[in-house]
Write a structure and sequence with these properties.
Helix content: 25-40%
Largest sheet: 8 strands, mixed
Order of helices and strands: HHEEEEEEEEHEEEHEHEHEHEHEEH
Low-confidence stretches: none
Distance between the termini: 39 Å
Shape: globular
Number of strands: 17
Length: about 350
């Protein structure tokens, strides 16, 4: 992956974007898309949509959500400590002792999630995470009125970590679920520049996926696509304690994952696999025996139905502050999608069995 793309990814990871607070990262994504699209627009829900070749008869929607898990301030006590609730699927076991940023009206406020020292814990408390509603953020103030000068109930907060490079082309960071997908959408649009497309492409960086696939529902209704491809992260199985018998076998560095199952249109799935094989782009296969829990769900059930597929970037330690992905997998994801879209014919039917 070239340096420009890595710098773009680094900027995405550095920008907080919990569900309902996506406008900062969407500004970055709009700027990135604009040189490569005929039009870039945003809707009332906050989705960003980059459009190429809009007049073509077959509409393809790519969707990678840009929101991440986070916190919302629910209560400020008399001493100025901030109590919060989760936005999306937070594991209480990984938040104690973390540095956080509270995204307040006047600007970011640094804080830490406090934790009683192990020396002071009762024997039956040791090794147990606090419940979310028992956890608190310390921003260094002495009382409630002082805290209220900086933060308000309803402000968002996120873990304060950025992207770090590892060995073997791996990177670690917060929120690759689904910075990876939003990145791949933008990179696919970049790769399509100058190519002869026979279909229309609507690249969407969707909002509020972590609280119910909400942005994909509204953007798909507005676009009314014939084809919808979600780009998200998937469970890697190549680390201790992960059982491939439950999740399927998936390793970092072996290419993006394509899926088979009821959420995947069999014609579309087969065409994507054939395109990758033709171009010698590595990919992996995972079975999905039910709804995938991604934007592919929302797109598939839009209006009279959409032919959907899911492309996943293998991800270790999902929904922790140290998610790990492969830059090579990211690069191959946008390559696979761009090559597939160039080959896609406007008269292609996706009705199973035809």
């Amino acid at each position: 992956m070239n340096k420009d793309s890595v710098d773009f990814l680094r900027e995405l990871v550095a920008t907080a974007s919990p569900s309902g607070y996506e406008w900062g990262i969407q500004a970055i994504l709009r700027k990135r898309m604009q040189p490569y699209c005929d039009e870039v627009r945003s809707d009332v829900h906050g989705n960003t949509i980059g459009i190429v070749n809009a007049g073509a008869p077959l509409r393809v929607m790519l969707s990678g959500h840009c929101d991440e898990i986070g916190f919302m301030i629910m209560h400020i006590d008399d001493k100025g400590f901030l109590y919060f609730s989760s936005v999306g699927g937070i594991d209480p076991a990984v938040i104690g002792g973390q540095r956080v940023t509270v995204h307040a009206k006047a600007g970011p406020v640094f804080g830490v999630i406090g934790r009683k020292p192990i020396h002071l814990l009762e024997p039956d408390e040791r090794g147990k995470p606090l419940k979310i509603h028992e956890s608190f953020i310390d921003i260094g103030v002495r009382k409630k009125k002082e805290a209220e000068k900086f933060v308000e109930v309803g402000d968002y907060a996120t873990i304060d970590v950025g992207l770090r490079e590892m060995q073997n082309d791996l990177v670690a960071g917060r929120g690759f679920d689904d910075r990876a997908g939003a990145f791949v959408v933008a990179e696919t649009l970049r790769r399509l520049e100058g190519k002869k497309l026979k279909v229309a492409v609507y690249g969407v960086t969707s909002v509020q996926e972590e609280i119910g696939l909400r942005g994909a529902h509204t953007s798909a209704y507005g676009i009314d696509p014939h084809v919808g491809i979600a780009i998200d992260v998937g469970f890697a199985s190549d680390f201790p304690g992960c059982d491939p018998k439950r999740t399927g076998e998936c390793s970092l560095g072996k290419g993006p994952t394509l899926h088979r199952g009821p959420n995947i249109n069999p014609v579309l799935g087969r065409l994507m696999e054939e395109s990758a094989k033709k171009r010698k782009i590595p990919f992996q296969i995972t079975g999905e025996p039910r709804a995938t829990g991604t934007d592919a769900n929302a797109m598939q059930l839009t209006r009279a139905g959409v032919a959907t597929a899911l492309l996943s970037v293998p991800n270790r330690y999902m929904h922790t502050p140290v998610e790990v992905i492969s830059l090579e997998d990211l690069d191959n994801s946008s390559r696979l999608l761009a090559d597939f879209l160039v080959e896609l014919k406007p008269d292609q039917t996706f009705v199973p069995g035809t």
